[in-house]
Amino acid sequence: xxxxxxxxQMTGMLGHPVAENPIDRMFDAVYAHHGLHWQFWxxxxxNERDLALAVAALRPLGYRGMCITVPWKVAVMPLLDxxxxxxxxxxxxxxITMRDGRLIGHNNDGxxxxxxxxxxAPLKGQRVVMLGAGGAGRAMAVEIAWAGAAHLTLVTRRExxxxxxxxxxxxxxxxxxxxxxxxxxxxxxxxxxxIMNATHLGCAPGLEPVPVDWExxxxxxxxxxxxTNPRITPFLRAARERGCPxxxxxxxxxxxxxxxxEQWTGIRPEEAVFQRAVADALGE
Length: 284
Description:
By secondary structure, the protein is of the alpha/beta class. It has nine helices and twelve strands.
């Protein structure tokens, strides 16, 4: 008698664009390593109407969890049944778990970046300039402040967004945070010890440079990028040429993905498995 294969447990990502993100290949490789009959699907969601339809479909389709990426980390919040404390403090969600038929919003974007940065340099006392303050950026700004940064400057094109996130950081952490207008090139305030690209500039296939005046970046200033493909972006390459240590977005992805994997499966992750899986996904 033929045995019936168990039904796959589905997880995935909602965002726009998602084509270049290696997260699906990474998760599928990790699921296979652990012998799980699970699968990860990337879904390109172009507008808020489709986002609402997609989130509403998660229950009847039987999804176990869903990652949320740009530009939907804020817009997804009112579509969920419950938000955890981090989401309420940060004002954005980057993944969903299904619990007793309820969609629960979480945010570990910042926790991933803090763990990745801590491998290279301590965050305590850092004077940080962050370029961009969208759904991921706002989470990272709050978590970096919680981790002991001394001061943050948020550089954004939209003044309303930048000032709102700066106020959220101050309220959540008590750490001084101010807004700076995005100009091309971006000039860093004197005394900056860490610069972080939280925009999509530099992502494959476009590989646009981040317009930074590198003469205002002190050699030795820590440079951090959220882009996951390629690992070494034009921003990080320029930073290295300036003599800056770097933290890449792939390391952040690994750190946050391990936390999400454990939430969804209950299995404690092995970092080496995730590192191999993402390196294979990127063809490294």
